[in-house]
Write a structure and sequence with these properties.
There is one protein chain. The chain is of the alpha+beta class and 136 residues long. It folds into two domains: 49 residues, no CATH class; 83 residues, DNA polymerase, domain 1 (Orthogonal Bundle). It has six helices and three strands; from the N terminus they run E-E-H-H-H-H-H-H-E. It has a three-stranded mixed sheet, with no helix packed on it. The longest helix is centred in the last third of the chain and has 22 residues. The protein starts with a strand and ends with a strand.
Length: 136
């Protein structure tokens, strides 16, 4: 959950930088995976959990773009719509991803019991905490 701790010269923590791309609310970022599955399902394309989890460390729109190029998914897209997936389709799915995010996260979130205790460490004025979401 907390990716980087920067220490000052006295070996005290000065800053924590964390990436909370679903990790805080959904260990392993499974919420994003279910959103991807739902976005494709709305287009009539069934993608597997494994397919949805496969593209790693990419922003969301690139993940969607890569998935639409998987041979099986591209073929199913062609069968479903009569044409290949284009950039407008990808942008539409990305916009749908953003709108679905909150509802799907609520359905698949798993609370991390130690989270409050861990985050309270950084509430002191002596610390500067920063976070990124990882969602683009």
């Amino acid at each position: 959950m907390i990716n980087t701790i920067i220490k000052n010269n006295s070996s005290l923590w000065k800053e924590a930088i964390s990436n909370s791309d679903g990790t805080i609310s959904s260990y392993g970022s499974v919420a994003e995976t279910f959103i991807l599955i739902e976005v494709f399902r709305q287009k009539g394309i069934d993608i597997t959990l494994e397919e949805a989890q496969n593209p790693k460390e990419l922003n969301t729109i690139d993940t969607i773009r890569i998935l639409t190029n998987y041979p099986r998914i591209a073929e199913e897209w062609l069968d479903e719509s009569g044409r290949t997936c284009n950039e407008a389709d990808i942008e539409e799915m990305f916009n749908n991803f953003i709108s679905l995010q909150l509802s799907v996260i609520k359905e698949h979130a798993i609370a991390i019991s130690e989270l409050t205790e861990k985050l309270n460490v950084f509430q002191s004025p002596a610390y500067e905490a920063r976070t990124i979401t990882g969602y683009n």
